[in-house]
Amino acid sequence: MMPMETIFNLAGVLIWTLLAGARLNQIITGNIWLIPIFLHSLLAIIMLIRHTSPVKEAPSYQIAIAWLSAALPLAIKIDQLQIISLRILSVCAVLFSIWALMVLGKSFGVAPADRGLIVQGPYCFVRHPMYLGEVFSIVVLLPGNSSIINLLLLLAIILTVILRINWEETIIDGYRSYTQQVRWRLVPGVW
Predict the structure, then answer these.
(1) Which of 43, 131, 138, 180 has the least C-beta neighbours within 10 A?
(2) What is the pLDDT of residue 106?
(3) What's the pTM value of the predicted model, to 2 decimals?
(4) What is the DSSP string of 9-54?
């Protein structure tokens, strides 16, 4: 029988590929601001295909919630944002996430699992830089795209990211000593 994470990864790769194609279509029709998001999705797809098998895997419900958390940002409705500085901040946040993803390399996975502890690159500053970049990239775009649905999605994203952080920190071997080296989980000076 196929491991639960593998089943979710196959489904996730298929869905992300379809969504990346939709983003590419939006880029072709003139929305160049989506290029970093498209690259992030493409890189995540490649990393999932090549990822290392985990030493320890999370329970099925954690895998399902992690995939839900990864998909939620794609449901945020972002119209054309007129405030260029917020777009630039969002792009920088996505690029920060891409940097974290590249540093993770084959250790990347959506579901909580022990694929080895990574402590270099942006992981020297915060323990979960990819989540920081993803959440920040959404937060800075919401002032120009506020709606009840977007705010509820942002709340769900933040709650599921907090769950994922707690699960990852308990499953990865050697994490306790890493917390002594890098104090902040997600937001420097806050948490």
Answers:
(1) 180
(2) 85
(3) 0.82
(4) HHHHHHHHHHHHHHHHHHHHTT-GGGHHHHHHHHHHHHHHHHPPPP
